[in-house]
Amino acid sequence: MTDTRLAMWSGPRNISTAMMRAWENRPDTVVVDEPFYASYLHATGADHPAREEVIASQPTDPAEVVAGLLAPLPPGVTVHYAKHMTHHLAPDADLSWLAEFRTALLIREPREVVASYVRAREACEPEDIGLLQQVRLLDHLDAPPPVIDAADFLRDPEGHLRWLCDWLGIDFTDRMLSWPAGPRDTDGVWAPHWYDAVWASTGFEPHRPRVVDLDAHDAAVAEACRPAYERLRELRVRL
Description:
Distance between the termini: 29 Å
Strand order of the largest sheet: 2-3-1-4-5
Radius of gyration: 17 Å
Oligomer: single chain
């Protein structure tokens, strides 16, 4: 059977870790958590929680990261799922390796992203939330990839997961809809700082409209990203 390799590109404060849980709960799948995080921190000097631990835990050379993503899969595994953050890509990053992967984009309304982000970080700029870089990926690819809007997904997780499995040519399993609570060995070393909600979860939470109150700066950040979001949203999977 041919291996299936899915690169799911998200911004922060989305449902990306829960999505990774869903795929990891498949018996035929191995997952990797934000493999370019260390290279991003090393190249930018960004001050993130557990910065030195992250850098020590992963390759900092993007070429080495790509080689790891392309390594043979373990026996009995036919699906490779990579959770990527688009803001981890350098502006001049070589993207030719994406030809070896199926690519999908996971988006979320920018005001909700910014509101969640600033609860964990003191400052937020447009480049921090991934939407601008997702448009760059879109423009690089020969054909538009599937775009999953988090709000739509949470209204119908099973429908969207079935759609993705059909697109990939693999069987859907209802094991993707729930998982045991707690951490995983595959979680990045940064997980204690970011994954409390996912560690407590056993499945996708129902979508809840959120009341968002942003100060002037954070509102401007969200609006700077809105054209990118709207462009991506036009391409979203519609069930």
